[in-house]
Amino acid sequence: MVCKTNIDSIRVLDEQIREYERTVIELKRTRNSLLDISKFPPEVLGNIFHWNVIRKGDFGGLDKRSHNFLAVCHHWFEVASRTPEVWSFWGNTTKDWNRWYRRSGTAPLDLVLSGNYDGGFDDEDSLDEDLCNALKDRATRDAIRCVHLRADYSTLIGDIINELTTGDEELRSNSMESLVLWNLDSTDPVDVSRLFTHYRFPRLQRLKLADCTISSWDHLSSRTSILTTLELDFADRSRTLTTSQLLSVLASNPTLQRVALFRRAIPDDDSGESSFRVQLHQLKELCLGGILQHILKLLNRLDHPRNLDTLNLTLHSCGVMDISRTIGPYLRDHLQRRDRPQDGLNLLVSREGPHPSQITLHIGNARRIKFSAPSRAEITTFVRVRVLLSRAPHEEVLQTAALDLTTYVPREEVAHFRMYHKIAARVDMYTQFPNLRALSFANISLPAAFPNPNLIRGGGSSLLWNTSF
Length: 469
Description:
By secondary structure, the chain is of the alpha/beta class. It contains 14 helices and 20 strands. Among the domains are: about 60 residues, no CATH class; about 160 residues, no CATH class. The strands form 4 sheets. The protein has a 14-stranded mixed β-sheet. A two-stranded parallel ribbon has the order 3-6. Strands 5-8 form a two-stranded parallel sheet. The protein is elongated and about 105 Å long.
């Protein structure tokens, strides 16, 4: 049994230990205050800390060591605690959200959820009452800067959206700048009608919806006006837009710089037939993937700059004859509208891809090509066309179709021509491109392509080639 005197002695020693620890802490803080880094103004340090916790990509998280600066010294911890921007990101899992949301303060929130592709429901992905209340509070105070949600089951995205919408019937203004909803379960579209029913988005610049649906797509045109990025990708089960609705959305956002529409986001109706063309004079990237006829109808309704940075077309349900009837002529017209590149064109035709009857054409600027080793050059393309034939033709027919597509490229502008993956050159290929400086092949024997090659041009200039097997 410990006597009372010993207990009192232990208490005295404990207090002395605590006093010693307090003294050590004060000495460390005094030492740290003498360091040059501690002489930085708090706003400078806070800005440095903020840059250390900026996520990458739409759904990226933070490095595990991103918040290590909190343990450097008391001064840094205090500065970070008083810098709301350090806590504007809760992580990209609901487990992270539960850990960090209490520290977030008043900084505009970047709400990010990065689901996986494994399927199934994880108990950790559920939203507890306190977290739901925190989301509702943020929504009520209009303190959410971006919402990026990706999940492999639609229920979770729907639950979060419901927490972010108020019960008010009155239409409210929302300061969100970026909205990305990626539902990985294409069999069950997420209904996001509540967002566009209750809010208008005067600051929204980026809108990406994958396998989502809205009760009235007219809300997209009436609720947004300064979009710079619009990406829509819908499966068959989604309630898709009509032509007139899509054109209305595009016309309501003349500042669009990137438009990407895939599958059922390309309207298949005949509504809106007129001479009206949407003016998209700031557009830089146009990416379309869907049925050939639907895409061509849409392209005829868009008025975009002649020198797009990127035109990316994936054309489904094509026939061999479509290359000469529609695809080739459109490609030729598009290239004729562009300014002629000073260093010529870099042209690649390939059969590579998961589709058994796929033809891919890449067109870029030949400016960075080192013609002594052209195959090593990275292709920067401004046009990419994928043609997916609905019926697999005979191999010889497919070869001819692939090469026929290249004939719609201005031949006098081609400086480098690459052929990959079962694309065999014709004997007269060299003569078709008068300014060709290099040919590159992969998986093809040169003797098979050119049994008797005569690669010396008139005037003494030569044609270089490069092969890889």
